[in-house]
Amino acid sequence: MESERIAIGIEDGVAHVELARDDRHNAMDQPMFAAIGEVFRSLGADPRVRAILLTGRGKHFTAGIDLHYAASQFVPNADPGRAAEARLRHIQWLQDAFNAVERARAPVIAAVHGGCIGAGVDLVSACDIRLAAADAFFQVAEVDVAITADLGTLQRLAHLVPEGLLRELAYTGRRMEARQAERVGLVNQLLGDRESLVEAGMALARTIAAKSPLAVAGTKQSLNYSRGRPVEDGLRHVALWNAATLASADLDEALRSRLAKNEPEFGPLDE
What we know:
The protein is of the alpha/beta class. Helix content is 47%, strand content 15%.
């Protein structure tokens, strides 16, 4: 599962996923997209994993898509129809890499330092929670290379920041600094530097990992399902979830521990 593009460590229920192409500012080429999809699909089904921390090595979280890789996707083809069909399938493959982040059973915390550019914004938009260092900035930069952002920013970021701000960022490609990102709610917390950022992200991940994994998984499913749907649909979904899962060992453990004033210990989920 680990590759030269991605580093992974798992300890105490927390998976630490690092973008590890720091010699290229974690620019995303085809092997990195493939690794992101594989890693999050695998961690999403791993019963050991109860929370995931996503960070980037080096100076920046990510410079976004590798422009040399992007340019290689537009090689002329004698048949424009076949070229368009192949390009569509490739874009959908790229989208699936970030969809795997959103679909992972465990919550994903993105800890962003330095630049989070282009596809990086797509990636962190698919995460559950975002923290940032004071030097972080976010840039929907696709417009500057004559591309419409197509890996999730336009679909997900509107649920995280005001739509007018999203439109401004997407139309202009300007940088949004960390303080504004915190002010509008894109990031939950600002930290002084990368070291304190990773420490805070790990502490938050451990807090989540200590909770009932069944309850956390249900909460994530309900939140994802309810986004963009009527309240009534979300209520029906969570009612069905609780009707199916409420009578669990986790509920017994939580109640027993609270009455005894002990810390609960929850077993892993099934694969």
